[in-house]
Amino acid sequence: MTYSAMIVRFTLLIFAAGSCPAQNVPLVYDVEHARSEFPKPALPKFEKLPSVRPLPDPFAWSDGSGRSTEFNDWARRRSEIKTEIEHYGIGTKPPQPKGIVADFKDGMLTVKVTQNGETLTLTARVELPDGDGPFPAVIGMGRGTGSLPADIFQSRKIATIAFDFGQVMSHTQTRGDEPINRLYPDQIHIGAYSAWPWGVSRIIDGLELVENDLPIDRKHLAVTGCSFAGKMALFAGAFDERIALTITQEPGGGGAAAWRVSETLGNVETLGKTSRAWFLEDMFQFSDAVEKLPYDHHELMAMVAPRALLVLGNPDYEWLADESGYVSCRAAHKVWKTFGIGDRFGFSIVGGHQHCQLPASQRPEVEAFVDKFLLGKTDANTAVTKHPFETVDHELWYDAWTTGNSTFPTLDDQDIETFTFEAEATSYGSDWVTGSDPVASGGQYLAVKTGLNSPQAVPNSDRAALTIPFVTSKNAKYYVYARVNCPSADDDSFWVKFDDKNFASVNGLTTSGWQWVKIAALEPSPGKHTLTIKYREDGALLDKIGVTTYPFGTEGLDAIAVVPSLKDAVGKRFKMGVGVSHRVLQDVEDVALIRRHFQILTPENCMKPQGIHPEEDRWNFEASDRFAEFVRKNDLEMVGHCLVWAKDDRTDEWMTKEGDAPVSREILLQRIESHVKTVVDRYADVATHWDVVNEAIGDSGDGLLRDSVYSRTTGMDFIVTAFKVARAGDPDAMLIYNDYNGHLPGKREKLIEFLTELKAKGAPIDAYGMQGHFELGDNSLDDLRKTFVELKKLGLKVVVSELDIDVVKRGRWWADGNKHRDELKSFDPYKDGMPADIEAQMIQQYVDLFRLFDEFQDTIARVSFWNLHDGQSWLNYFPWQRVNHPLLFNRDRKPKPAFDAVYELLSTEKQ
To answer: Which residues neighbour 616 within 8 Å (Cβ) at sequence distance 6 or greater?
Structure first.
């Protein structure tokens, strides 16, 4: 379909939707994947994927370039999510083939699909109501209405269509030996949740082909199923936009539940425990690292938007992970609400009934969704959010992208409470014995005596018990972990009890050697408590027990060395800072790194004049306000960066013109005064440093100042004005002139002349901001020393404002009249990592720089890196795209050898 044709269909469907016509949001589309013209996102390999602990932002572009909550952009974002789920989770759903024929006879729809010379036949029993139609229809996974009562649909004259999924792929597929594999022999790796939705889509194709014989209203199609078939219905609804309503009943892990949240619960269907037949084998590389999965299942549900989705749960079955499903539903609902169609999504999690049996208490919501989205009854109440999880803090999983401030706990959070206990040091009965293993914590572990097995009932005797008293201080959820060695399915379980509650079986803990496993999740009140563990199978070995409020407790409990702190090593010499994008503050892993190592933050772009003040009468404070609020909440300091950027290409036109004429000196100075005053007044409470003017000195030999509208119109007066206004608004802050290459002999001479004249004109300047963008091997130390000495004579402090070392050097980009640019555009020598000799040079250069900073600690007020880790560095893109390694932390946020060397230097040198 062409883009223009898609827009025409899109517009027509707005009026067919019925429920929300004024909002221009369609209820359904007439093609399987309506908007497929968008480029695919990058799909990094597992080891290159970042860790994202909370639920990923469904509105954020996959390339990290930003986010959009506009419905007009949802098509592109949905396409990205689809590609990621296919690539990492289920395999690519094959597209609609050209070779499809269908007929309808004696109540049976037959669809024949031909591809690669092979034909697959699908048959679906259709039950039609009395009358002429056309009739809305529900496609049930396995049966005509799935596990929902048939009378809900029959009484409303809705046709029912049974999808025989085994005709496509069996429930326990044998990879490469399933019916669909004959058609697509190059896709034998796909999971069932790629294959089964493909089959549902082919049934819908068949309905289109027999429309003259089978009176189905294809604008009002629903899918439904329960349990594994509930997942099937959800994937079908998510991946085919011709489906107006999806009802997924008790889908559990791999369905509505979010993998990340399920990892924090008890004996539930986690990613590592779900059926391998249903997903890609490659998905299971995320079993112990779900935080690296680029998506989660709130986004699978969001793919249904703007169409209708009802999620039904049953909390009586722990395995279904309905607490996780609840959190995921809350997060997914934000998508529908953002588009003004919150009534198209609902969830009902109700217990007191058998698995896949709809209780009377859930029937009204099913009927309401059917009435509104299959029958067009706009007055049906679909505002359904039933659940038993009032105490669950769901917002911390997604508030980073709803409020801009994440409350997701991190290991360095002062609110985290953790206890660990060596099993052999606890109070245990005589049925337990100690064993020795050098790999066990402390070299010892506990095991039950051989032959003592009690899988059906809890052992009565206290001899079977291990008891652990502990005292909690917080009103929070606590997670209980055990470090165990459970070698097989016959030796992988315990009985566990908390306080005076009943014992529960904790089974399926099979490990590969010693590993941490989750055995319980508790919500105790502050005070004294007791954890009791009894044996269940005699081969399950117990090494250590941990209790923590950290949801991903294994990281805090395992014997992992704590990363030393850079700011602690620096001590009182100078402040340690970093410049970051405001978006970085939404990532809990980045936030943890910031809080551990840095005291002062510089906003990379959001506070620059073009970002914060795009028109004379319009301000954009949203991003900078979020940045400042983060700094306040985390008891940090902020650099206001920057108030005036003295370059024409960094200045908006409104600043440079009066009508059609160039701006006058008087008006330009008034505008600078107004801009500086507004920004400083807004952030004076949190900014302790201000980059007042940026890059005003000329690079060429002509003139002291850079040629710009500022220098041409006011000379140096714009700089003096900016400093005086900043001082008036923030008397106690450090006011900085910021520039690059001030250590080089030619520019140093200009710099000293410039600063001397600035002080003579009464500018209240406190420091020079030396950007510090060095290149590998640039031999800058002697020049830096000379510059520091000269600045000290002027009575000025130095801040190293933007430190990094470019290892893929950029000097040649401008050399020799730019003749090397075509060659450099494809120059990417370290895309697979730095060679050892290059890394050794980088380490030494960083050590030499920090040794010099230490020597001038009475002059240097701050050292700030520019960007947090290698993956975020501007030097990956400027002035051409290449993989750079300029910082102390790698792309996985781990400290590099250069960090270790700098830390050792600062820790051993006297302060």
So the answer is: 654, 655, 671
In this structure, are strands 494-498 and 527-535 parallel, antiparallel, or unpaired?
antiparallel
Residue 210's alpha-carbon distances to 105, 218, 692, in angstroms, are 10, 12, 71
610: nearest Cα among 544, 654, 660, 661? 654
Residues 637, 628 contacting (CB under 8 angstroms): no
Helical spans, DSSP H, in 730-882: 745-760, 781-793, 821-824, 836-855
Q: For residue 10, give the nearest of 337, 336, 241 by alpha carbon.
A: 241
Cβ(898)–Cβ(905) under 8 Å? no
Write the single-letter amino acid at 770: M
Asked if 859 and 797 count as a contact pair (C-beta separation under 8 A), the reply is yes
**Contacts by residues 419-422 (CB-CB < 8 Å, ≥ 24 positions apart):** 419/470, 419/546, 419/547, 419/548, 420/544, 420/545, 420/546, 420/547, 420/557, 421/468, 421/470, 421/544, 421/545, 421/546, 422/543, 422/544
The two tokens of residue 334 are: 């934000």
| Beta strand residue intervals within 332-443, DSSP E | 345-349, 385-386, 418-422, 427-428, 432-436
pTM: 0.64
Active site residue 87: no
Q: Which residue has tokens 């949905």?
A: 78
Among 355, 505, 565, 820, the one annotated catalytic: 355
Cα separation of 564 and 558, whole Å? 17
Q: What is the 3-state secondary structure (H, E, C) of 54-100?
A: CCCCCCECCCCCCECCCHHHHHHHHHHHHHHHHHHHHCCCCCCCCEE
Query: Which residue in this structure is represented by tokens 């590609």?
Result: 83
Catalytic residue of the set 19, 147, 227, 262: 227
Summarised one tens digit per residue, pLDDT across range 271-321 is 999 999 999 999 999 998 899 999 999 999 999 999 999 999 999 998 999
> Per DSSP, which regions of 178-298 are E strands?
216-226, 245-249
Q: Helix, strand, or coil here: 686? A: coil
- Residue 31's contacts (CB-CB under 8 Å, 6 or more residues apart) are 1, 6, 9, 241, 242
Give the span between the Cα atoms of 892 and 48, in whole angstroms: 8
Which of 224-228, 515-519, 838-842 has the lowest average pLDDT?
515-519
Output the CA torsion sign for 633, 634, 638, 641: negative
611: amino acid identity, one letter: G
Q: What's residue 414's pLDDT? A: 65
- Is 60 exceeded by the pLDDT of residue 863? yes
If phi > 0 it is left, if psi is from -120 to 50 it is alpha, else beta; for residue 330 that is: alpha
pLDDT at residue 476 tops 70: yes
In order of 58, 247, 342, the CA distances from 299 in angstroms are: 6, 16, 16
Q: What CA–CA distance (Å, rounded) separates 579 from 873?
A: 10
Instruction: Please tell me the distance from the alpha carbon of residue 901 to that of residue 881, in angstroms, as a whole number.
Output: 28
Integer distance in angstroms from the first to the last C-alpha of the chain?
69
170 given a catalytic annotation: no
- Distance between CA 157 and CA 164 in Å, rounded? 22
Instruction: Using DSSP, state whether 644 is helix, strand or coil.
Output: strand
Tokens matching residue 26: 């369609």
Q: Which band of pLDDT confidence, cut at 50, 70 and 90, is reported for residue 426?
A: confident
For residues 172-178, average pLDDT: 94
| Average pLDDT for the chain | 92
- Token pair for residue 761? 């004109």
Tokens of 694: 């940026």
Reported as a single tens digit per residue, the pLDDT across 564-581 is 789 989 999 999 999 999
The span from the CA of 739 to the CA of 798, in Å, is 11
Q: Say which residue the tokens 């679909």 belong to.
A: 382
Strands 797-806 and 860-866: parallel
The token pair at 328 is 């995921």
Which amino acid is it at 222?
Answer: A
Residue 899 confidence (pLDDT) above 90: yes
Which stretch of DSSP H or E encloses residue 722? helix 717-729
Side chain identity, residue 344: R
- Residue 35 contacts residue 6 (beta carbons within 8 Å): yes
